[in-house]
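JOB MANIFEST
job_type = single_chain_structure
chain_count = 1
residues = 370
[input]
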Amino acid sequence: MLASALVKQGASVVLYDRDANAPAAQHFRVLTGSWSDPRALAAFASECDIITYEREHVDIDALRAANIVPVPSLRVLETTQNRAKEKAFLSSSRLPHAAFLVVEDRSELVDAAMKFGFPCIAKTIIGGYDGKGQWMLSNKEDVARVPDVAVVLEDVVPIVLEVSCVVARAADAVAFPVFENAHASHVLDTTVVPARISSKVAAAVSHLACEAANLLDVHGLLTTEFFLAREPARRSQSQSIDGVHIYVNEFAPRPHNSGHVTRVACSSSQFDLLSSVLMNAPLEVPTLSAGGFAMANILSEHCDDGLVSKAAALTVDPQAEAGIDEVMIYGKSGHSPRRKLGHLIAHAPDAESAIATAIRARSALAPNYR
């Protein structure tokens, strides 16, 4: 999606991936190699004027050894791929966040958890996404479930809603509308825009996202995920607006799954704005189209072999679900559990109707969704 946006701006695109059959290889040239191979990375970099990334979990030492200076910077990548550094940044920047305690040595985890207090959440410092690398700890016995890795212990926020805000930044930060996100088994399930929150809360979320991008000195995209609560977490410092307590959860310095909805909902998508930053083109302030929009992820365990043909029919069949503006199947190989195979985006007069339309259409595509 980013490569396509870059081509529209006149760029020539080459990609680097471990898998020669990665989805992008169906449309663009892909060089293959390990994330930790400086020689292969340097060969790739020799063909590029500018390099960006679409995942945080790459080997920074290998990038440095290959003399790669990506956009956003290695400093941004180093902060956002490491939960301890990310939490330290939140604390030093006085951005609202859940209280935390870094535990580097597994032998100290029981005493640290007892001192920090139950309940709490243990999260791996490196790696982990979509709920992987996280454990809810309700008592001393639960600590035994945590493997021998460094973790961050985090206060439990009584979440009523999760939202995200994508910011594009070159000289100045430009924010997309706030997205409302719902998860199933820790994986993003649906995104709705506009988020069903007050204008004051939305403005506060957008301001915090821009402030974070400025403080991190991001050149590119920064997605900030937030927790919203009606009651404050017992040990954490929130920002309270309109009776809602706002907490920054984490950052992603790249296009974000929730931001896929911008391909239909906004005047410019997250991919368009990132390509503008990379190509040193002016940044357009994205505007939200009228009505409500909803994106629904399509996960592997809910699909059968007819997914591609059903997706094609949904976009061309006049008898199919009305209000579906995009169905994108990524072309991923393999059907491991919780693998995101694609998404669809629905448009309706309001957010409630849009999400209902998206869920109905997804059920037609993937019969195991209910």
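[summary]
Residues 80 and 196 are 28 Å apart (CA to CA).
The chain has a mean pLDDT of 93.
exit_status = 0
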